Amino acid sequence: MRRLLLLGWLTASVSKWHTIVPFLEAANKPGSHGVMLDVGANDGGSTLSVMKGLCKWSFANLCCSKKAPPPVSSLTFITFEPQPKFRSNLVDLHAASGLCDTHKYEFYPAAAWSETTNLSFVERRDSRASLLEAVKVSRKHGDRMTQVPTLDLASFINKKLNWTDLNFLKFDVEVAEYSLLPNLLTRGALCPFDYFFVEWHLLFVNESQRLEAVALRLAFDSLIEKGCPPRPRGRRVFEHDETENNKLVKVPGLTERARWQNGHGYMPTAPKSGDSKA
Q1: What is the CA radius of gyration of the chain?
Q2: Do residues 193 and 221 touch, judged by C-beta distance below 8 A?
Q3: Averaged pLDDT, 129-137
Q4: Phi then psi dihedrals of residue 152, to 5 deg
Q5: SS3 for 238?
Q6: pLDDT > 70 fraction of the chain, expressed in percent and rounded
Q7: Which of 15, 127, 196, 253 is least crowded, fewest Cβ atoms below 10 Å from its Cβ?
């Protein structure tokens, strides 16, 4: 298990930087403005790393340094995280990073969802696995329930993001992706983004719904490409199937469907009405 966790962490880190670096390279062009939306920020580590790395990684037009002229390009960092334990750190993230006022930072102490309301939230010992109860996963020993505000993410994106900016989405919402991404797609809220980093958590999906969850995962890139107007620079979609959350996870119906598609066996039974909710 430790090896799986380490492998998952390493592959996530590599995949994440494969997305962030091209985004920063594009935003580094003089006069550019980029927006990094971190949904499911946890302790803000990913966003803080980017903030602190602008000078270290030699993005000269984004670098805030007393030894250099003010940046000629700018970034806006936006984080979403409902867990109260991280609130003070996330509020102070801009100050902790040492960023100058050329770059902006906004923190929303809410869970991203399909509507603005209050929902039960499952806090787990491993904060990275905490999640909304609305996604209906099995409870674990040590789970603690609390109420958190949610924010209609599609509405937020459609009002907040500018199509002329460079937009980056980091999306790590602990199994809520299977409910939230279709909502964002059908409401056009994924279309303004140029860069995506999406984490998938198949392990926590109910077995009866895993086949359609896999289908969403496999079709996601194509759905964005075919469902959204083209972006001037194209789009880069990186999807991370973290090992311990996806590999060796039983998917009822997958083998039967594959056999039938390849000319063997019988047509798989259609899912029962009501089984389609993730």
Answers
A1: 20
A2: no
A3: 64
A4: -65, 100
A5: strand
A6: 85
A7: 127
pLDDT level of residue 22 (50, 70, 90 thresholds): very high
Q: Are 29 and 21 in contact (CB under 8 A)?
A: no
Residue 273 scores a pLDDT above 90:
no
Q: What angle do CA 25, 31, 33 make, to 5 degrees?
A: 65
DSSP structural state of residue 269: P
Scan for tokens 């984080």, then name that residue.
79
- DSSP labels, 216-229: HHHHHHHHHHHHSP
The closest of 77, 84, 76, 23 to 46, measured between CA atoms, is 77
Strand partners, 123: 144
H or E element, residue 52: helix 45-56
Q: What is the largest CA-CA distance in the chain?
A: 70
Q: In this structure, are residues 253 and 17 in contact, taking their beta carbons and an 8 Å threshold?
A: no
> If 0-12 CB within 10 Å is exposed, 13-18 middle and 19+ buried, where does residue 263 land?
exposed
Give how far Cα 133 sits from Cα of 36, 87, 105, 178, Å: 27, 20, 29, 14
* Confidence (pLDDT) at 141: 52
Tell me the sheet residues that pair with 146: 121
Residue 180 pLDDT > 50: yes
Q: Are strands 118-123 and 144-152 parallel, antiparallel or unpaired?
A: antiparallel
How far, in Å, CA of 160 to CA of 39, rounded?
14
Statement: residue 277 has pLDDT above 50:
no
